[in-house]
Amino acid sequence: MAQTTLSSDGGPAATLAKLLYFTEPKGGVRAYHFINSDPATGQREKNWEFDEKQVSIENLRGKEDTVSLDTTGFQFANHTTAHTSFANDEEIKREYYPESIGLIKKLTGASRVELFDHSKLRNVFDGNALNALDIHSCTPSPPRRY
Predict the structure, then answer these.
(1) CA Rg, the chain, in Å?
(2) How many domains does the chain have?
(3) Is position 24 within any domain?
(4) How many C-beta atoms lie closer than 10 Å to residue 97's C-beta?
């Protein structure tokens, strides 16, 4: 269970949480995780495991400028997108992708940006599809609403 500490303004300063980290398969082989479940077991075959670690996750509200892509692997940027409807994949690719690419280039100085993994969270589960959280965490579960 997560433990939260409070900052001087009463908001959360940090929380302790258990995160699952990928561990490489033994023998130096390439990792795999099948997308389709075995009909008999309902499990998706994989050749790697998770390593659970307890970590402190810090609230960066008001301290967004203390992190950067170079020092922490992520950064914050204030940007209001012109694209507001995320229901149509073709519109997203036509409008939101170029805007996102331009923003990433501007923020990072990159000369080329490749977008990948067009995963979207949906409130509908068709019984076969995996939502974006499942794909990234590699753990099958029903859709969640946040």
Answers:
(1) 19
(2) 1
(3) yes
(4) 15
State the CB neighbour count (10 A cutoff) for residue 130. 19
Q: List the chain pLDDT tens, one digit each, 146 residues.
A: 556 666 666 667 889 999 999 899 999 899 999 989 999 999 999 999 999 999 999 888 888 999 998 898 889 999 999 988 888 889 999 999 999 999 999 999 999 999 887 776 655 545 544 444 444 444 333 333 33
Domain assignment of residue 90, yes or no: no
Query: What would the two tokens of residue 87 be?
Result: 């229901």
Task: Please give the residue range of the domain that contains residue 14.
Answer: 1-63
100 occurs within a structural domain: no
Tokens of 73: 């692997």
Q: Report if residue 79 sits inside a domain.
A: no
